[in-house]
Each structure stands twice: as C-alpha cells, then as structure tokens.
Amino acid sequence: MIAARLHHAQGNPTQAQDAVHQAEEIALKIRNRFLDAALAETQTAVASTALPGQPLIEPLTERELDVLRLICAGKSNQEIADELFLALNTVKRHVNNLYGKLGVSRRAQAIIEARRLALV
Questions:
Q1: What's the rounded Cα separation, in Å, for the pair 35 and 1?
Q2: For residues 22 and 16, what is the distance between their CA atoms, to the nearest angstrom?
Q3: Dist CA 7 CA 28 (whole Å)
Q4: What is the pLDDT of residues 75-95, one digit of tens each?
C-alpha cells in the first residue's frame, strides 16, 4: 500500500494500480480488517486520479484544460481571454492554477508537462 501511495504521489497511476492489486492479493491471503480498511482507503485515493488524461492529484477543470490547450497553441493571455470570452484576470487565475497543479512556474514548463502527461 505504501508503494501504491508513493507511485500515486509521483504521478505514476499505472504503477500505483499495480501496487494496489499486489496489496489486494496479500490482503486476501491474511484477512485482516485493519489492512482491509487501509487498502480500501488507498484504492479510493489511487482510483480518484487514475482517469485517462488526468494523472494529477488534483485534476484540471474543463476550463483549465481549455486554457492549457490554448497555451500549447502559443496564444497569449489576452488572446485566450478573447477566444474564451473571459476577463484577462480570469485567464491569469486559470494559468496560475494550472502552474500549481502541474508543478511548474513557467509557460514553457507547463507545455512540456502537459504533453508528458498527455493532457493535450
């Protein structure tokens, strides 16, 4: 279960799921109610971020994904605001939220991370 949580925290959903399955096999063999409860909690945590295209601990909202796609298309904040009919400050807030969720501090890093995670 520890391995599952570590893989989950590192953004490796496939490895996290594999570790959960190994823990399930062990839990079935030894039948311990405390282990069963801990396993259920770990399964819930891992499953919540194992959605296709959203391997993040805190998934992106639809609007954040829209903004991210336009960032990857090379649009400026003002161009994004115009295209999505948003205020410039709203776009800036979405961009900052994206940076936090992706663990980056610059636009280029956000593009690289989004492609690495197959979000765009």
A1: 9
A2: 10
A3: 22
A4: 999 999 999 999 999 999 999
